[in-house]
Amino acid sequence: MASLGLIGIVVLAFIIFVVYFIFKILQFIIQAINLYKKILESQEAIQELLQGISEITENYESAHLLFDSSLIKKCPDCKEMIKLEAKICRYCQHKFPNE
Ligand SMILES: [Zn+2]
Asked: Which of 63, 71, 90, 92 has its CB 3.0 to 4.6 Å from that of 78, i.e. a possible disulfide?
């Protein structure tokens, strides 16, 4: 009877160990999922940041072009403002005759 009790304790300890092991694996999986979500969120944040930077750059370029209006002409085809020295429109590829 004493040996049966010992086996019982060993089996119980083994079950506790297995349950603990499964619990640890689940914890690890949850942590991995959370980490993956954070990575995705940070990637979106970086993309938004890059988009913001490109928008600012574009705004600066158009503002700079408008400010420097003496170096600008209007394309007769698409009505976009382009550089005075341009021989081809960068928007519609309209060709300007050589002056
Ligand atoms: Zn054009």
From this structure: 92
| Same domain, residue pair 76 and 63 | no
> How close is the Cα of 79 to the center of ligand 1, in Å?
6
Same domain, 47 and 95: no
Q: How far is CA 23 from CA 18, 33, 44, 91, in A?
A: 8, 15, 32, 61
Residue list, CB under 5 A from ion ligand 1: 75, 77-78, 89, 91-92, 94
Distance from the alpha carbon of residue 52 to the mean position of ligand 1, in angstroms: 26
In order along its 99 residues, the chain shows pLDDT tens digits of: 556 788 889 999 999 999 999 999 999 999 999 999 999 999 999 999 999 998 888 888 777 766 666 788 899 999 998 888 899 999 999 999 876
Do 96 and 52 reside in the same domain of the chain? no
Please state the pTM of the whole predicted model: 0.42
Q: How far apart are CA 67 and CA 86, in angstroms?
A: 18
Whether residues 44 and 92 share a domain: the answer is no
